[in-house]
Write a structure and sequence with these properties.
It contains three helices and seven strands; from the N terminus they run E-E-H-E-E-E-H-E-H-E. By secondary structure, the chain is of the alpha/beta class. It has a single domain, classed as 3-Layer(aba) Sandwich (Oxidized Rhodanese, domain 1), CATH 3.40.250.10. The strands form two sheets. A five-stranded parallel sheet has the order 1-6-5-2-4. A two-stranded antiparallel sheet has the order 3-7. Strand 5, helix 2 and strand 6 form a beta-alpha-beta unit. The radius of gyration is 12 Å and the shape is globular. This is Sulfurtransferase. It comes from Agrococcus terreus.
Length: 96
């Protein structure tokens, strides 16, 4: 599984796999919200080449492994939304 830093996301589509209440509290601007529990059912909505993010990087790593098994190109955002916010990347709301 490949990991990238928030700064390396660049033009990749960003998929946030956190649960609804986490998303509502704060998320990356322009992220696509597909909770981890819905990834299998909504696989067709996951863009190839996606950068996958969660709070700290653990859940998104599991999702990336699954996406790769399905033949999609996906990378994990190291450190999750915590690192994203710390790096000063654009956010809607805040991450606690």
């Amino acid at each position: 599984m490949r990991e990238i830093t928030p700064a390396e996301v660049a033009d990749r589509p960003l998929v946030d796999v956190r649960e609804q209440q986490e998303w509502d509290a704060g998320h990356a601007v322009d992220a696509i919200h597909i909770p981890m529990s819905e990834v299998v059912a909504r696989l067709s909505e996951v863009p190839d080449g996606a950068a996958v993010i969660c709070r700290s990087g653990a859940r998104s790593a599991q999702v990336v492994a699954y996406l790769e098994q399905q033949g999609l190109d996906a990378v994990n955002v190291a450190g999750g939304t915590l690192s994203w916010a710390q790096a000063g990347r654009p956010m809607v709301g805040t991450v606690a």
